[in-house]
Amino acid sequence: MSKRLLDKENEIAILKSLKVNDFNEVANLEYPEIRIRNERDREKAKKFSCRLRGSVRLSAGYFYTEEELREKRKRIDSLKLRK
Predict the structure, then answer these.
(1) What's the burial of 31, exposed, middle or buried (CB within 10 Å: 0-12/13-18/19+)?
(2) Which of 45, 64, 71, 81 has its CA 20 to 30 A from that of 14?
(3) Each residue's pLDDT tens digit, 28-72
(4) Maximum Cα–Cα distance for the chain, whole Å?
(5) Contact at 8 Å (CB) between 41 and 68?
């Protein structure tokens, strides 16, 4: 027999706030795109990464901001390819 983590009242409140009928529907919700805009966002991602499982690279702050990625793409696009 599995132990319930939430009592029925809390479960109903959470389901209403998420606007779903069942917790299985949470996986199918539309989530906003995560955007890293500046150094402050990078620091926040590093700070809260200990709470989540996932990429070591992201948790260490090794990712590009939108501006850094734009510059890198521009530099790569300007490279000449060998024939």
Answers:
(1) exposed
(2) 45
(3) 777 777 677 777 877 777 777 777 666 777 777 777 778 888 899
(4) 67
(5) no
List the one residue out of 24, 49, 19 whose CA is nearest residue 34: 49
Are 39 and 8 part of one and the same domain? no
Q: What is the 3-state secondary structure (H, E, C) of 8-59?
A: HHHHHHHHHHHCCCCHHHHHHCCCCCCCCCCHHHHHHHHHHHHHCCCCHHHH
Whether residues 20 and 48 fall in one domain: no
Q: Which residues span the domain enclosing 4?
A: 1-31
Distance CA 76, CA 29 (A): 35
Structure tokens at 57: 């690279």
Q: Look up the pTM and report it.
A: 0.41
